[in-house]
Amino acid sequence: MRHPTTIVLALLLLGTACRSERPAGSSASTAPFRTSAEQIEHGREVYTDSCARCHGKSGEGSSKAPPLVGQGALPMEPRPAQKRKQPFHTALDVADFATRNMPPDEDDRAKLSERDYWAVLAFALSANGVDVSAPVGPTNAGGIVLHP
């Protein structure tokens, strides 16, 4: 029988190896965020790794994608010729669209966890001045009204 310490060490090394294979920007953890600040910071990191190449370094938008932060960000009605067809009344509407369509490439989308998507949304909301006093998720996103 192997020594218990050897088994524990082997499991820790295996877990570390598995985590290191995850793509940059994705979350290895599935634990809920303890604070909104923790979620927003994770969202900033995921945004930088997975969204900034199209939406701009600071979310200002580009010729490839609309702004996510600042003037013109997250408008209620879709822009002309935009992929989005549904209005953005609440943060839940944004989450629904983003999880099905962003990033545009399905392989890139598959690299992001549900936790990552909620974190990016919390980051974008916070960057737009929305008070994110608790971690954003499916239980409270419908109550975050973007366009009263």
Give the N-to-C terminal Cα separation: 65 Å
Global Rg: 18 Å
Strand segment count: 0
Query: How many domains comprise the coordinates?
Result: 1
The secondary-structure class comes to: mainly alpha
**Order of helical and strand elements:** HHHHHH
Characterize the largest beta sheet: strand count, sense, and whether it forms a barrel.
Answer: none
Describe this structure in words.
With 148 residues, the chain is an all-alpha fold. It has a single domain (32-143), classed as Orthogonal Bundle (Cytochrome Bc1 Complex, Chain D, domain 2). The protein has helices at residues 4-20, 36-50, 52-55, 91-101, 106-110, 114-127.
Short description:
With 148 residues, this protein is mostly helical.
